[in-house]
Amino acid sequence: MGNFPLVPEQASEHAKAYDALFNTITGLSVFFTVLVILIVFFLATRYKKGSSASRKNPVDSHLGLELSLTIIPLILALGIFLWSTKNFMKQREMPEGAMEVFVVGKQWMWHIQHMNGIRENSELHVPVNTPVKLTMISQDVLHAMFLPEFRSQYHVVPGRYTDLHFTATKPGVYKMLCAMHCGTQHSEMVGKVFVLTEKDYAEWVATGGNRNEPKVESMADAGAKLFAKKGCGTCHTN
Questions:
Q1: Of 108, 148, 115, which is closest to residue 134 (Cα–Cα)?
Q2: C-alpha to C-alpha distance for 49 and 14, rounded to whole angstroms
Q3: Residue 47 near residue 55, CB atoms below 8 Å
Q4: Sheet with 123-127, edge to edge strand ranges
Q5: What's the pLDDT score for residue 187?
Q6: Each residue's pLDDT tens digit, 122-176
Q7: For the chain, how are helix, strand and coil distributed in percent, rounded to 5?
Q8: What is the pLDDT averaged over residues 185-200?
Q9: Geometric angle at alpha carbon 113, from 201 and 133, rounded to 5°
Q10: pTM for the full predicted model
Q11: CA nearest to 185, candidates 109, 114, 124, 71
């Protein structure tokens, strides 16, 4: 609908499966709502006061109708349950070998650190068609990482790591939101996900995240230095 889309565009592998389920549930809801309204309208018109409809020997039970109104909704409900469970389990199963990114939610921004040492604030750069796993924690209150174009969301909790994954399918710039009311500036906790081609992502990494710092220290190197500086090897050695 031009510049006012009804739903965000689909930009991840999960988006199509999510939208298919959502559209099915919406379609069934609309269908049965319209069906009930039409039946009510028909009965109200047919049996309104003064109508010539026969009211002799009214039927107070109908086994076939009762079974239909029980079995059909049950089958539909179980089908939706199984379908949604499959989608949920697939979304919550972290892919092996995914590119791992660490995320800290804080009032009111997202702090992001890549394994290669590059850090970002309320921005996330990832390559297209690459599984990405976000390992998240909150510095203060409850937050929720929400990526609408990827149809991905999960809570970011203080004192506990949570995770979320996605595979972006098209280059572009997408929204990064907080879906949990986290204070007075909750609506300003907005970031961007930059999905780059493999070439562009390699160039972005080579320049240290567009900061012209090609020798960014990786998390592994930083950890090794801290390990040595604090004398951790005194106790923690193989």
A1: 115
A2: 54
A3: yes
A4: 123-127, 190-196, 172-178, 143-147, 152-156
A5: 92
A6: 999 999 999 999 999 999 999 999 999 999 999 999 999 999 999 999 999 999 9
A7: 40, 25, 35
A8: 94
A9: 75
A10: 0.77
A11: 109
